[in-house]
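Figure 3 (text version): structure tokens given as input.
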């Protein structure tokens, strides 16, 4: 894999030289701050829209390069996975009808991308996590063939010293291992940037840290991953764990993850954040630097600070400090990375307006939050909001504890309104977008709530893959045709999935992911008891490392009963004595027709589904009974 990346950028000598360039950029930034280079008193905002591409069966479609070929790269660009795209909105001055113009530009870009994707047999969907995504979609073959992605993957893997571990506990629990950075591609966000002045950066950044928890709680849209019901905003957990380079140590150490909220308030300057990151996080890889920042300053030109910006892109703060140059003027931005993609463009723009208004209006109401609450409470609030959404209690200023819905409706919406009006945004504009937040919070119908409510309404109807396809189809329909915010969406229904044929394309869509298993050293009597109780005819046999070592069938028991010796000295037989040790297996992405033919040709009633030697599911004759029912019903209906 390393040969596909830029391995020279991982050499210690190259990283040392690049570290020197980062430190030089940081000194140049400090000089610019002292000498007043940074643009002040200008309010612009922008956004980065991430999206999923889906194809047959509403499954992830690796078509990004084909779509980009027709779109042209600006303002679209690739993401880590071939089933993701990103659109970068141009900066907009914060004034008058700015949010309407922002939504109009976003809709225009998405309509353009949608038209091109449809020509390739695909659709686009705005979702924090794609309901139909499966682990088999996260292979290196699905990674965008950009050398920098391969280099980053290798650098992170070297630091971890092992596989990526993901564990998220919600209503359900998800525990899995993965061998690459591709776990990160499960996420899609709508990142919002707000330009701020150097003199006000510290207090506005602190306010943004305070406000991101209630904004996130009102915006959650990612409750599912691989069909499991997890956090209200599962993206937060996935992103942090998928880029976590910390390895276990024999001692208790406070090691910071590269995806993090922060650990302290900012006191005076943006440089505190860059300095803290450099002190805590290793430079992962080198890059090309083509300018001397001090030569640029001496010539009266703002430097790009390429080394510092590349390093900053490998540190994932939920509120990230950013430096840039626009129209020849250097500026600072706060980038809110916590907000999810979707459910609709009006929801996304409303989220942005709510956050921006709170950042601008917050200091007048609360002053510097560092004087009124502990940073640890702000950090806890963020994680609580990600887990529970609007069902969250927050530790607020001056030691109060308050329900987030009460806080938003009674305090934060008026405060955000004040901040937006003070920036010159029109009354009607503020009413429209903050009205979306008010309707969503008052009704409790966030994107996550809509998803879980829709899933619950389909309980007992179809199989899980059909339900997830129906969710995705309904998202697309609402985003394309309805144009309403999510709190006014009707629940998804199973018939939106496109029929059972779309849910039986591959084994992983309908396999039993929680099969009854037994260990090879267990007594045969236990296996007989389990098979009778569960009314099953096959049990996969695992060893202590959860590797498949055999299968026990009902026929094997019959043979054993006919041959066994019931004498007291015979002992109790173990499973390994009767199991089949060379069972026929398939991979999760095996096409259904292939699986059916294997079972028919080999005369077997079950197929263990194995990935890297470990059991991940089971397909039996029962799984195909519904297909037979649907086929017969359809045939008789036609006749």
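Below: residues designed for each position.
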């Amino acid at each position: 894999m390393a040969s596909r990346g830029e391995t020279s950028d991982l050499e210690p000598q190259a990283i040392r030289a690049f570290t020197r360039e980062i430190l030089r950029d940081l000194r140049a930034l400090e000089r610019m701050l002292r000498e007043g280079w940074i643009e002040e008193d200008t309010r612009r905002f922008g956004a980065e829209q991430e999206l999923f591409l889906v194809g047959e069966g509403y499954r992830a479609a690796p078509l990004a390069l084909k779509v980009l070929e027709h779109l042209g790269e600006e303002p679209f660009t690739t993401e880590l996975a071939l089933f993701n795209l990103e659109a970068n909105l141009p900066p907009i001055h914060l004034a008058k009808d700015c949010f309407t113009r922002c939504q109009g530009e976003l809709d225009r870009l998405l309509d353009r991308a949608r038209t091109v994707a449809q020509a390739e047999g695909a659709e686009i969907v705005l979702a924090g996590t794609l309901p139909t995504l499966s682990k088999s979609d996260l292979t290196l073959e699905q990674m965008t063939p950009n050398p920098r992605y391969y280099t980053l993957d290798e650098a992170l893997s070297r630091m971890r010293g092992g596989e990526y571990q993901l564990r998220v506990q919600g209503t359900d629990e998800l525990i899995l291992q993965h061998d690459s950075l591709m776990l990160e591609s499960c996420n899609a966000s709508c990142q919002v940037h707000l330009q701020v002045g150097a003199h006000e950066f510290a207090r506005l950044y602190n306010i943004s840290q305070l406000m991101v928890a209630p904004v996130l709680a009102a915006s959650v849209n990612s409750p599912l991953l691989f069909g499991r019901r997890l956090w209200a905003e599962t993206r937060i957990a996935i992103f942090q764990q998928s880029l976590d380079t910390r390895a276990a140590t024999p001692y208790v150490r406070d090691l910071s993850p590269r995806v993090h909220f922060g650990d302290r308030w900012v006191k005076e300057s943006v440089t505190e954040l860059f300095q803290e990151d450099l002190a805590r996080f290793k430079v992962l890889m080198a890059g090309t630097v083509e300018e001397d920042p001090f030569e640029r300053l001496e010539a009266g030109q703002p430097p790009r600070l390429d080394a510092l910006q590349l390093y900053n892109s490998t540190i994932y703060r939920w509120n990230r400090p950013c430096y840039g140059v626009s129209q020849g003027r250097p500026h600072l931005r706060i980038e809110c990375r916590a907000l999810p993609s979707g459910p609709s463009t009006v929801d996304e723009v409303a989220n942005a307006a709510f956050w921006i208004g709170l950042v601008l209006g917050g200091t007048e109401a609360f002053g510097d939050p560092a004087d009124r609450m502990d940073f640890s409470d702000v950090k806890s609030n963020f994680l609580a909001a990600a887990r529970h959404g609007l069902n969250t209690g927050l530790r607020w200023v001056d030691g109060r504890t308050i329900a987030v819905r009460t806080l938003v409706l009674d305090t934060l919406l008026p405060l955000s309104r004040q901040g937006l009006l003070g920036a010159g945004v029109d009354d009607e504009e503020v009413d429209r977008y903050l009205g979306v937040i008010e309707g969503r919070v008052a009704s409790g119908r966030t994107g996550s709530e809509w998803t879980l409510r829709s899933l619950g309404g389909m309980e007992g109807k179809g199989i899980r893959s059909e339900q997830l396809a129906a969710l995705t189809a309904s998202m697309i329909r609402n985003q394309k045709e309805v144009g309403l915010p999510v709190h006014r969406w009707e629940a998804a229904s199973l018939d939106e999935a496109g029929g059972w044929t779309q849910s039986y394309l591959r084994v992983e869509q309908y396999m039993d992911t929680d099969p009854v298993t037994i260990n090879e050293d267990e007594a045969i009597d236990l296996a007989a008891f389990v098979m009778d109780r569960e009314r099953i005819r096959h049990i996969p046999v695992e060893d202590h490392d959860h590797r498949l070592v055999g299968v026990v069938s009902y026929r094997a028991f019959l043979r054993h009963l006919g041959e066994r010796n019931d004498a007291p000295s015979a002992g109790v037989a173990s499973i390994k004595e009767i199991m089949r040790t060379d069972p026929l297996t398939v991979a999760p992405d095996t096409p259904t027709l292939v699986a059916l033919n294997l079972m028919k040709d080999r005369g077997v009633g079950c197929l263990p589904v194995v990935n890297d030697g470990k059991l991940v599911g089971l397909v039996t004759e029962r799984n195909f009974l519904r297909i037979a029912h649907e086929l017969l019903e359809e045939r008789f209906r036609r006749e």
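Confidence is low (pLDDT under 50) at residues 246-255, 567-571.
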